[in-house]
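Structural prep section.
Before we set up the soaks we want a predicted structure of the protein with zinc ion in place, mainly to decide which crystallisation condition to try first. Input record follows.
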Amino acid sequence: MYITAHAAAGAAIGQFMPSVLFAFIAGFVSHLILDMIPHGDEWIKDWKLFRTKMQRTTVAALIDLCGVIAMTIYWINHSDVSQLPYMLAGIAGAIAPDALWGLYELTKSPILKWYKIMHRTGHYLVFKTRLTVIQGFILQIPLVIALTWIIMNY
Ligand SMILES: [Zn+2]
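Run finished without errors. Recording the tokens verbatim:
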């Protein structure tokens, strides 16, 4: 799932947590659960615009990161300031699983290899179906909108 969607879930869930530590953990867990739902971003690996897997992943992650930054600014401006630490901890927790995976791809560290396998396996644990790019957007855009509504109205 796109990092923007994960961040939205982390921010929304974080607001309901009693501490920033719980918000971070809840964000992390929400990422692993959301990844189990087919979400149609496998197309990135067939993206013809860039030659290597590393280039494709990096460009996609940078575009997605811009989405996270833009949405985080929006969420901060449209929610209660007292919720800010929980929201940010939730976002950090929700982004961490993909950041760890990115760290593995960059370093190929054996310490992170088990994690990479676990993260990958989680994607196909419940559903074997793969969505198209369009189906992925049809799922994730309303999800971000719904979570934004929760963030703004809690
Ligand atoms: Zn993930």
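Observations: The chain has one domain: 3-153.
Flagged for discussion at group meeting.
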